[in-house]
Description:
Protein name: Type II toxin-antitoxin system prevent-host-death family antitoxin
Order of helices and strands: EHHEEHH
Organism: Cellulomonas fulva
Family: Belongs to the phD/YefM antitoxin family.
Helix content: 40-55%
InterPro entries: YefM-like_sf
Number of strands: 3
Largest sheet: 3 strands, mixed
Structural class: alpha+beta
Strand order of the largest sheet: 1-2-3
Amino acid sequence: MRTMTATRVSRGFSEVLDAVQHGDTITITRAGVPVAELRPVPVASGRALSDALDASTVSLDDTFEADITAATKLLSNGNPWPDA
């Protein structure tokens, strides 16, 4: 992790973004006090979503689950808006 002043970051923002894109995390300071961090965005994937849902302890209520099932059924049966 690198630390840079806000002034230095503003003068070399393109280079800072290049460093972050390559995996660096940069702490930005103002008057010697850390005020922000720039870090790479975590890569999102279907696998990550699936793992998060599997780890979830939240359950759906019966009505909501029935609505989701009905909507999924409509989508799998073709056009849900035949009059459109």
